Amino acid sequence: MLLAAAIFLVPAYILMAVVSGAFSPRFNEWLAEAEHAATLGLPSPPPPSDFTAPAIALLAASIVLLIASFLSVAAIVRIVDTVYRGGRLGATAAVRDALGRMLSLIGGQLLYFTAALAVLLLGFSLAGVLLVGGGLLTFLGLVVLVGAFAALLFLAVRASMLTQAIVTDRLGAADGFARSWRVVAGSGWRVFGYVLLLALIGVLLGLVLGGIPTALLHLSDTTTGGVVAATAIDGLVGILVAPVTPIVLTLLYFDLRWQHGEPAPLPGGGETPARPGAQGGGLPGQPGR
Questions:
Q1: Would you say residue 91 has pLDDT above 80?
Q2: Which end of the chain, C or N, has fewer beta carbons within 10 A?
Q3: What pTM was computed for the model?
């Protein structure tokens, strides 16, 4: 699993290290000077000239890293699915499978991003109008703002099985998103608990494996060497912790399928029988493999 993740993540982090090392120190130095000037009440220093190209390069490298992360998760999910069923799958085969699902994976994430952006824009626009009204309207604006964040959280939980649906059930972007939505239905708080716990574990591991070495080495984000070294540490940590969340969520996905009355894979091979009348009455359209 680590090898499958590394095949995608190592080139992406190398690209990020090169781009960040070339462009980030100058921007970080200006940002530090601006913060210092704001603290002292002094005029802010002018931003670096010709920063458009570096900003585009950093954005492009970030997008490459994001796509590499999607693909590494997909490869790990495929390995977990195969091994759980009693089979064997090497890193190369898992990588090929993930690349074959790339368009569906990106499309599914774009659907999720679009839905989240729509909720965010609608909620913030309505809240902004109400907040400037004063009195009761201000209170209603705060309620709408909290509701928008709650809706974003709800959407994130419902879409949390998107990759599992696309990879294990061989679905397209829209069908994968819809299936994740349906399979999480009725278990939202449980899934939220897992997602929150995994996020906390990820943050803790990141602090221990990445934050402590970075602090001990006194890496500066205003020097090329410091930025490159920090990016390398982030990459190593990212590869080491990459399997944790996909493993847990894939096993949870199998359990959610069973909870909805679907056949679910058994350890070592085979499937559980369908459970008529189970929660949700079963999900329609169980795809073939």
A1: yes
A2: C
A3: 0.86
